[in-house]
Write a structure and sequence with these properties.
By secondary structure, the chain is an alpha+beta fold. The protein contains 11 helices and 10 strands. The longest helix is centred in the first third of the chain and has 40 residues.
């Protein structure tokens, strides 16, 4: 009987402490004092081991019931205190709606950077790795190793940026394409090779669709059994992914490049409405990239045996893809640093492209 009275008095004291707690910190101190490791109820439960079986059973049931009631009282009081704290904040804190809005961030991701990352994401999903090379190249890597003859127009100074001659008479160039990366990759890797080489390139050209510096991505696939079917499938999947279409109409036209044989220009179906091009529909055609099977001389220049290895290569302008995808009419605007243009065409820093969440 005495034990029952003690538990009843203890419960009354604890409930009184809970009701008197004026804030959540005070309530937490009550909880620790009653239910913590060294709390009153916890100490009593630890002492049950000294009791005989019958006493242990009845005392245990009584302590568990007490613990449950005190815990419920604490939880109820905690909700009351939370509501009181919120009511106090609402009554004392005010927002001046006449204050000017916080100035939004001026920074945006450039469309070229966005499309560059989109391209990397797509080819990464297809199993390609990214390879890089220097902007300043020797004549061998930029022309000779790519089977470009001495009399080819691309070697002329009206098309290529040359440096002053070295002591041996040779002249370095600002690379005119990222194809030199293909040679460097072949020199340091054994097939199977599956790489893309995005980067800056430089040519003496400037108009609405050409700039002296532009961005290009080239791809190279080499193995023992690669054929044109692999090339067509890869580029079809790329075009569907980059333009975010379920299907695209493509045309592969025979062409000529010194570094591929056979070579193909690739057109994509489109239509023109109010001066804007729509990709993937209509009866018009738009050239978007060049491709072909890697010329045996190029494979040989890379240190591999063309009798054992074959593959395909392709190249596409990243700036051109950005113009087509996002309706940008003039390539020169990409490099004018006009903040109004960047705010209009730029992307949020958090808009990271990925195939699962959407590229654009």
């Amino acid at each position: 009987m005495t034990e029952t009275l003690d538990l009843e008095k203890l419960e009354q004291d604890l409930i009184a402490q809970v009701d008197q707690a004026s804030n959540e910190q005070a309530l937490e101190e009550v909880r620790i004092g009653a239910l913590g490791k060294k709390g009153t109820i916890s100490a009593m439960m630890k002492g049950m081991g000294k009791l005989d079986p019958e006493q242990r059973k009845s005392t245990g049931q009584a302590l568990n019931a007490l613990k449950a009631r005190v815990s419920q009282a604490i939880a109820t009081q905690k909700e009351v205190l939370k509501k009181q704290a919120m009511d106090l904040r609402l009554a004392t804190e005010h927002v001046d709606v006449t204050l000017p809005a916080r100035k939004r961030s001026e920074g945006t991701i450039h469309p070229v950077s966005q499309v560059w990352e989109e391209v990397v994401q797509i080819f990464g999903d297809l199993g390609f790795s990214v390879a890089e090379g220097p902007h300043i190249e020797s004549d061998w890597y930029n022309f000779g190793a790519l089977n470009i003859p001495d009399e080819h127009p691309a070697r002329q100074e009206h098309d290529t940026f040359y440096f002053n001659p070295d002591k041996d008479g040779s002249r370095k160039v600002l690379r005119t394409h990222t194809s030199p990366v293909q040679i460097r990759t072949m020199e340091t890797n054994q097939p199977p090779i599956r790489i893309i080489a995005p980067g800056r390139t430089f040519r003496c050209d400037s108009d609405q669709t050409h700039t002296p510096m532009f961005h290009q991505v080239e791809g190279l696939v080499l193995d023992s059994d690669i054929h044109l079917g692999h090339l067509k499938w890869t580029l079809t999947e790329f075009c569907k992914a980059i333009f975010e279409l379920d299907d695209v109409k493509m045309r592969f036209r025979s062409s000529h490049f010194p570094f591929t044989e056979p070579s193909m220009e690739i057109d994509i179906g489109c239509t023109w409405e109010n001066g804007q091009v729509k990709i993937g529909e209509g009866d018009d055609w738009l050239e978007i990239l060049g491709s072909g099977m890697v010329h045996p001389n190029v494979i040989r220049a890379g240190g591999l045996d063309p009798d054992k290895v074959q593959g395909f290569a392709f190249g596409v302008g990243i700036d051109r893809i950005a113009m087509l995808k996002y309706g940008i009419p003039d390539l020169r605007a990409f490099f004018e640093s006009d903040l109004r243009w960047l705010r209009h065409y730029g992307f949020s820093a958090l808009n990271v492209p990925n195939l699962a969440g959407g590229l654009s």
